[in-house]
Design goal:
With about 400 residues, this protein is an alpha/beta fold. It contains 14 helices and nine strands. The protein has a single domain, classed as TIM Barrel (Alpha-Beta Barrel). Strands 1, 2, 3, 4, 5 and 6 form a six-stranded parallel beta sheet that branches. A three-stranded parallel beta sheet has the order 7-8-9. α4 packs parallel to α13 and α9 runs parallel beside α10. The relative contact order is 0.15. The N terminus is likely disordered.
Length: about 400
């Protein structure tokens, strides 16, 4: 664990309101739910200290204090210490949500899908409708008991976060598989607070093809109906896990800009999980925003494939800026508290899934400099300051671009 410097202590005073609440503390462990061994303070560990000069430190503090910071994908979910516990832990509704860790992140607006546990309840047939309703309800109940985060339902709610010193959570779902073939379920999800919906996860569903499919048939007729309904309601469309043709079809079909909340550039790392130049440019030309992902073993770089660090992640950021322009790039780290890779392995093993990669690499257990939500966004900001990014460009990347598009969609 890296020891905190005096400058780090200054940084950590710039946090959100936190009242000490621990997830589900109104219940009794062992009686109301089964407790599991979870990581404690080590889950906030700082894996790389990005030192700044005093003048740069003032820029960092100014950004955190006055400018909205948006994470297009991160997770309050806490992964158990023991990998063998992960599936059993996720089979119960009462999974821990780390309010203190989110408060330390400095993020104002968080796209959170709440499905981290429920995804492990399912078979390869995908998420079940009732399970999603239960998971949303239990998480909303827990959120209602604390004073650090709140559920945002419109653009005005997002803007309130900075002034209230709280975090606005924009409820999201990773994929629309639970719609099956019922378009009115989009309205139900909207009524339950969902404001961002992915078209597919890695596999195909009734809307289109996921990025793991060998054949991408594009957006289906039902998928077109869903896109139209989401446009009417004012819901963010996410194509992070869609195949290339499905992504292009969604961008063309949507009247509103489309988000790629957490991905990277295939030109930097040749993997289906990354997006082609064609998709990236089409997204930007429609007015959309691309969030740079920092999940372990995703946004690697062919220059150094055997080490996943903030350097390789930010190589994707730099490439995207050059390709689509500064106005269409954001941050979507996609990090967890605890063993992210362990969670992914449990998920893949249970569903017999494995994302194929065009490049060979040695798996990293975490991304150095971007391991958790507490560290990730702040270090990405510090990296940009250290590398001489203009203040206005940083402001756009950390939230300005996303909020510009969200205003049009949510209102």
């Amino acid at each position: 664990m890296v020891m905190m410097s005096q400058k780090s202590e200054v940084k950590n005073r710039l946090v959100k309101k936190f009242d000490g609440y621990q997830s589900f503390q109104y219940l009794t462990p062992g009686k109301d739910y089964k407790p599991f061994q979870l990581p404690q303070s080590e889950k906030y560990r700082q894996t790389e200290e990005i030192e700044l000069r005093d003048d740069q430190e003032r820029i960092f503090e100014t950004l955190l204090k006055y400018y909205p910071i948006v994470s297009l994908r991160d997770h309050g979910f806490v992964v158990p210490k023991n990998q063998e516990d992960i599936i059993a832990y996720c089979r119960q509704l009462h999974t821990a949500f780390d309010y203190e860790g989110l408060a330390l992140s400095g993020v104002d607006v968080l796209f959170e899908n709440f499905m981290d546990g429920i995804s492990l309840l399912t078979s390869s047939n995908g998420l079940k409708w009732d399970d999603v309703i239960l998971t949303l309800g239990i998480r909303y109940c827990d959120i209602a008991k604390q004073d650090t985060v709140y559920i945002a339902r419109n653009y005005h709610d997002l803007l309130e976060a900075k002034g209230s010193n709280k975090m606005a959570i924009l409820p999201s779902l990773e994929a629309a598989s639970i719609l099956e073939n019922e378009v009115d379920r989009v309205d139900v999800l909207y009524g339950l607070g969902i404001r961002c919906l992915g078209i597919t996860y890695n596999e195909a569903n009734t809307l289109g093809s996921g990025l793991m499919e060998k054949q991408d048939g594009g957006l289906t007729r039902f998928g077109h109906r869903v896109v139209e309904r989401m446009n009417r309601l004012g819901m963010v469309i996410d194509i992070s896990h869609c195949g290339d043709q499905t992504s292009l079809d969604v961008i063309e079909a949507s009247e509103a800009p489309v988000f790629i909340t957490h991905a990277g550039a295939r030109a930097v790392w040749n993997s289906p999980r990354m997006k082609s130049d064609e998709v990236l440019k089409a997204c930007a030309e429609k007015g959309g925003v691309i969030g740079v992902c920092a999940a372990p073993n995703t946004t690697l770089s062919a220059k150094n494939p055997n080490e996943h660090t903030i350097k390789s992640v930010m190589e994707h950021l730099e490439y995207l800026i050059e390709l689509v322009g500064i106005d269409h790039v954001g941050l979507g780290p996609d990090t967890f508290f605890g063993d992210h890779v362990g969670l992914q392995h449990a998920f893949d093993d249970m569903l017999s899934l494995s994302e194929s990669h065009g490049e060979h690499f040695e798996e990293s257990s975490y991304v150095k400099g971007l391991e958790n939500p507490t560290e990730a966004t702040k270090n990405m900001i510090r990296w940009m300051i250290k590398h001489g990014y203009p203040f206005q460009d940083i402001q756009k990347i950390i939230g300005g671009n996303a909020l510009r598009v969200l205003k049009d969609i949510l209102d």
